[in-house]
């Protein structure tokens, strides 16, 4: 079975550019989560969707960050404009509905903003 | 304020011996706990979980223990194998009503020496 698929795996871009990260969740999963991992803050939740609807975006650092889930099989995390402090590994995860379901992670996008 | 803490950043164990990884939490609303394993350049992989109604869950070489009164959980790996060398994260959730959102600890790097 295909797991969570993220693209690109690596992204290097200059400060001020727009960055779009993509995620395809596991088929049948109706919850999707975006995380950011940094040395300083570890793994932190940015936003999560349930049935394609954003439920909690309190972890999104600022208005430069936005996320969408236009359908059950695709989500994007966009940063515009990007800044060097956005450099991190960004993970997407999905889980089935109902209680006590583990989240399954993609392999992440390593983002470097120069 | 870290709600989930892994106080040991690293642990070194001889192959064949037991590995014990510890995790403490402060939020009494957490009712579902998970352990993830992470290799470099990969996403976290779900390992084992436990509900707050249990105090032990076992899956092959992996056992998770939960002590609710002490707000402490641990992961035992017996016997440890070199392939177990990875970073281990504990995570906690307030459950379905909180969207199954996970709060992660900072991770413990396990090194199993042949």
| Total count of helical runs of at least 4 residues of chain B | 0
**Beta-strand proportion of chain A:** over 45%
Work out the helicity level of chain B.
under 10%
Gap between N and C termini of chain A, in Å? 36 Å
Structural class of chain A: mainly beta
State the total count of DSSP E strands of chain A.
Answer: 11
Structural class by secondary-structure content of chain B:
mainly beta
Based on CA atoms alone, the radius of gyration of chain B comes out at 14 Å
- Oligomer, anyone? heterodimer
Q: What separation lies between the terminal Cα atoms of chain B?
A: 38 Å
Query: Strand percentage of chain B, roughly?
Result: over 45%
What would you call the shape of chain A? Answer: globular
Helix content class of chain A: under 10%
**Uncertain stretches of 5 or more adjacent residues of chain A:** none
Mean pLDDT of chain B: 94
* Main beta sheet strand tally, sense and closure of chain A: 7 strands, mixed
For the largest beta-sheet of chain B, the strand count, sense and barrel status come to: 6 strands, mixed
How many helices of chain A does DSSP assign? 0
- Count every beta strand of chain B, where a strand is a DSSP E run of 2 or more residues: 11
Uncertain stretches of chain B:
none
Question: Would you mind describing this structure in some detail?
Answer:
The complex is a heterodimer of chains A (114) and B (114). With 114 residues, chain A is an all-beta fold. Helices cover 0% and strands 54% of the residues of chain A. In chain A, the strands form 2 sheets. In chain A, strands 2, 4, 5, 6, 9, 10 and 11 form a 7-stranded mixed β-sheet that branches. A 4-stranded antiparallel β-sheet of chain A has the order 1-3-8-7, with no helix packed on it. Chain B is built from no helices and 11 strands. Helices cover 0% and strands 54% of the residues of chain B. In chain B, strand 4 and strand 5 form a beta hairpin. Chain B is mainly beta. Chain B has strands at 4-5, 10-14, 19-25, 32-38, 45-51, 56-59, 62-67, 72-77, 86-93, 102-104, 108-113. Chain B starts with a strand and ends with a strand. In chain B, strands 2, 4, 5, 9, 10 and 11 form a 6-stranded mixed β-sheet that branches. In chain B, strands 1-3-8-7-6 form a 5-stranded antiparallel β-sheet, with no helix packed on it.
């Amino acid at each position: 079975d295909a797991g969570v698929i993220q693209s690109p795996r690596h992204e290097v871009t200059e400060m001020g550019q727009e960055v779009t990260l993509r995620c395809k969740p596991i088929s049948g999963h109706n919850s999707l989560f975006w995380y950011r991992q940094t040395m300083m803050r570890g793994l932190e939740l940015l936003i999560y969707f349930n049935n394609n609807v954003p439920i909690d975006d309190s972890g999104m650092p600022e208005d430069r960050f936005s996320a969408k889930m236009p359908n059950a099989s695709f989500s994007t995390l966009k940063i515009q404009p990007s800044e060097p402090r956005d450099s991190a590994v960004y993970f997407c995860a999905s889980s089935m509905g109902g209680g006590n379901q583990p989240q399954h992670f993609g392999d992440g996008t390593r983002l470097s903003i120069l | 304020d870290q709600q989930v803490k892994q106080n040991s950043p690293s642990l070194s164990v001889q192959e064949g011996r037991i590995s014990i990884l510890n995790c403490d939490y402060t939020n009494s609303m957490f009712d579902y706990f998970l352990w993830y394993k992470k290799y470099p350049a990969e996403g976290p992989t779900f390992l084992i979980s436990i509900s707050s109604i249990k105090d032990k869950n076992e899956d092959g070489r992996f056992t998770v223990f939960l002590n609710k009164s002490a707000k402490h959980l641990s992961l035992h790996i017996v016997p440890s194998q070199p392939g177990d060398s990875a970073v281990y994260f504990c995570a906690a959730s307030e459950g379905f009503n909180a969207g199954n959102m996970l709060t992660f600890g900072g991770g413990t790097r396990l090194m199993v020496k042949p």
